């Protein structure tokens, strides 16, 4: 009887060790899932440089970041972004940004984006006016002209004259250049005779809701799986330990 009891204790202890070993391997599995590699993250690129906080805020507030993600994932032409520095924004007449309605803010941001990859050497051969994300340049509302010679790349909108002052990022598909002035499109900033009151601004709430609706990653599901695994483990371990203790008494 005594020998049988010892044998049982030994077997159960072995099972316990074996179970501990297996469950540790199981518990490690979720952490090893590889991170998905998506399209280039423009926000991240701009954040790294540290001097584009206002432009980043505008990109997010206008939802243009989301457009960029989709377009960068889905284009053969690539994309060029002229990113104005924080200094560029603070040298605007104060209250300028706040005076724009939602639609104008979107247009202003889109005016800084050309739906085509342009390397510095390609600036010498672009045909003016360039088409930007803000719309067709042909109707004269959003003209953007670029002239280049040597290392100088001049940009003019009809209201703003500036030049490219640095390359932030380039990978053959996306190019991000620094500009030290906000590119002001004629359509928004041209001095005009007093016009009828602008259309009421569209609700920002609707946009925010759209963001909130975007599907989250499945972390919660994975967490609950891990929790139930641990719970199960504990129940089984408790059971086996109880038997071992009872038998050894
Ligand atoms: C891009 O990077 C920013 C900052 O690092 C991060 O907050 C954001 O979630 C990223 N977006 C995507 C789609 O990965
Ligand atoms: C990128 O494009 C592929 C194929 O068109 C699509 O399956 C995927 O969901 C897209 N990813 C993002 C982040 O838009
Ligand atoms: C760029 O602008 C500067 C200053 O306005 C001017 O001197 C230069 O000639 C321009 N270069 C080109 C290529 O347009
Ligand atoms: C841009 O270039 C086009 C074509 O050369 C020209 O007709 C137009 O006047 C230019 N606009 C500005 C603002 O320089
Ligand atoms: C921009 O440059 C053009 C041509 O060089 C000039 O006619 C115009 O006055 C300049 N505009 C500003 C705002 O400096």
UniProtKB/TrEMBL annotation:
Residues 1-27 form the signal peptide. Residues 39-183 form the FAS1 domain. Keywords: Cell membrane, Glycoprotein, GPI-anchor, Lipoprotein, Membrane, Proteoglycan, Signal. One of its GO terms (biological process) is plant-type secondary cell wall biogenesis. Residues 190-223 are annotated as: Disordered. It is found in: Cell membrane. It is a lipid-anchor; GPI-anchor. One of its GO terms (cellular component) is plasma membrane. InterPro entries: FAS1_dom_sf, FAS1_domain, FLA_A. Its main location: membrane. Gene3D superfamilies: FAS1 domain (2.30.180.10). May be a cell surface adhesion protein. Belongs to the fasciclin-like AGP family. This is Fasciclin-like arabinogalactan protein 12. It comes from Durio zibethinus (Durian).
């Amino acid at each position: 009887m005594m020998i049988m009891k010892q044998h049982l204790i030994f077997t159960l202890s072995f099972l316990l060790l074996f179970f501990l070993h297996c469950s540790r391997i199981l518990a490690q599995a979720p952490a090893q899932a590889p991170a998905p590699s998506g399209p280039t993250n423009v926000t991240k690129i701009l954040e790294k440089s540290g001097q584009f906080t206002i432009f980043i805020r505008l990109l997010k507030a206008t939802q243009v970041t989301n457009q960029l993600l989709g377009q960068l994932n889905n284009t053969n032409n690539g994309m060029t972004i002229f990113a104005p520095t924080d200094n560029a924004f603070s040298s605007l007449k104060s209250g300028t940004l706040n005076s724009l309605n939602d639609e104008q803010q979107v247009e202003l941001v889109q005016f800084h984006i050309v739906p085509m990859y342009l390397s510095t050497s390609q600036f010498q051969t672009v045909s003016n006016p360039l088409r930007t994300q803000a719309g067709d340049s042909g109707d004269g509302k959003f003209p953007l002209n670029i002239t280049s010679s040597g290392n100088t790349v001049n940009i003019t909108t009809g209201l703003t004259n500036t030049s490219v002052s640095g390359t932030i990022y380039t990978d053959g598909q996306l190019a991000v250049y620094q500009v030290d002035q906000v590119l002001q499109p004629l359509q928004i900033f041209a001095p005009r005779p007093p016009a009828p009151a602008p259309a009421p601004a569209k609700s920002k709430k609707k946009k925010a809701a759209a963001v909130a609706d975007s599907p989250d990653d499945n972390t919660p599901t994975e967490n609950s799986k891990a929790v139930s695994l641990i719970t199960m483990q504990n129940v089984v371990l408790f059971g086996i330990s109880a038997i071992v203790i009872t038998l050894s008494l």
